[in-house]
Amino acid sequence: MRPIDLFDNYLSGKLSGEEVKAFETQLSSDSVFANAFEQHKILIDTLNKAEKRNAFKNKLKAIHSQAFGNDAKIVSIKEETNTKRYVKSFAYVASVAVIAVLSTVAVLSTGGYLLKQQSNQITNLMREMIDLKASSEAVSGAIVEGITKGKQKTVYAPANLEGSAFALNNKGYIITSSHMVNGADSVFIQNGSLERTLTEVVLINAKLDIAILKVVNKDLAKSWEVPFLFNEKPTDIGEKVYTLGYPRKDMVYGEGSLSSLSGYFNDTSMYQISIPVNPGNSGGPLLNDQGNVIGVIRGKITGAEATGFAVKSNEIFKVISSLPSDSVKEELMSKPKKQTLKGLKRTEQIKRINPYVFNVLVYKKD
Amino acid sequence: MSRSKVQFTEDQFIDGLRTGNNEVLSALYKKYYNIVLKFIVNNSGTQEAAQDIYQETIIVLYENVQKPSFELNCQLQTYIFSIAKRLWLKQLKKSSKTFLFKEDGENELVDVSEEITEHLNKEVELDKLNQSLAELGEPCATLIKDFYVQKLSMDEIAEKFGYTNADNAKNQKYKCLQRLKKCFFEILPVEQIERK
After folding, report:
1. A309-366 confidence digits (pLDDT tens)
2. Residue in B48, B59, B177 nearest the CB of A56
3. What's the confidence (pLDDT) of residue A355?
4. Which of A57, A340, A352 sits opposite B55 (nearest CB)?
5. Which residues of B touch A63 (CB under 8 A)?
6. B125 CB near a chain A CB, below 8 Å?
7. What value of ipTM does the predicted structure carry?
8. Contact predicate A80/B189, CB 8 Å
9. Are A4 and B177 within 8 A, CB to CB?
């Protein structure tokens, strides 16, 4: 029995007399076990206290509005909110400024791209990090450090490239675009529920513009329960689709429909979609109404703002199944257990998908 | 408001709080609000701030009353006011705004340092837990609460969350709790608690 199950059974009186004896003997002889049990009790106890507290708070709020009306807005002014709000709003302003500059840069650089390489008109949507971004991050980092004394904050060097990625399965594999990770020195992923973590590139297919990464620290993926499945057949024109990605620090949602079953130059490995995609969207998932992944965002047509391209999910599996059989292939073929998004409202779907869409940060040596 | 008001004695208030009597709680809440409101609004606070501080005050009172050792050595009003004042002063000190503080002689004060310190320590723990739960996300947070707080069985949880059987639900709960543990015990306190 796993320790946690044992703890639960002991606390709820589900152990037999002999088992209780054995449990208590272990408690007195095994200090690691005893500490783990102590932590377990503290956590469960705090959980109950917190729930009781929340219930009581709600009761008071109800009494208040019943007695004194709702005219007084319920604004909590906890000790730290003032400073936090300030930092937050600063970060927000900074990021807006950065986006403004970035989008200008994107337009300018795509112009240049067009002149140089007329044959390749798909703009890769990686986000090139520029000095302004770095300096604004440094400034806000300094503010955070200055204000929240005692709280540790690691300030990272700005990445050379940023984009999106998402989980392939519960084994810690992640899909992104190969143009993101080409020539990368190190590739990290992060999001609201995962601290910045190192990955290794396990597969690159330049033709499809697909790369597969793996989380280096396996333990991080232990609790993964990827909520979506991958469509293994092409879907229909007109289907409503949406994407999630990191064109900036916070995740951004975009929706539209599937406008063509082929991509630029009739490339049948791609879908054309009517979602405005931006630098940073590269490598993000393209999902349908049921919450199935149907593709990976690849790029957009230069100059056409509301047209994007995505690599079809079935093409990715063709590539994976063509690999020579070995343990990596076996792990790559592993699929998320089941779809848990069907029938849910879009907002609910996104909440569940959220932890499995990542911001990719790529560092290059030169 | 024209309904006949039941008047409670202080002992009745305290007994009612102990037993979780909603009628008593409601009457108590209404009775002392204005004293706290007046004090806070007179001392650089808004009505919203007063409401928050007052509710926090009632929480402190409520939790202390539950202790077997609780003994009220002054008027209930003095006790409530002393807690509210300490909480408000702490908050004012934290904010960088300059403020005018009017000492008022009309309300007596008692020493509630112990209560305040204990309350703030507990707040840090609860905040940490709430943060960890938020970090954990759904369905984990609800699943954990359903099992450990609502005491639902694994069968009920399996049905509620759509797991095929109780064993799957149990595995899921196991994973969720592992993550919660990690979050909870690794988050550093947001700030040092001011002891005095």
Report:
1. 899 998 888 888 888 777 788 888 888 888 888 888 889 999 999 999 999 999 887 6
2. B59
3. 93
4. A57
5. 25-26, 29-30
6. yes
7. 0.85
8. no
9. yes
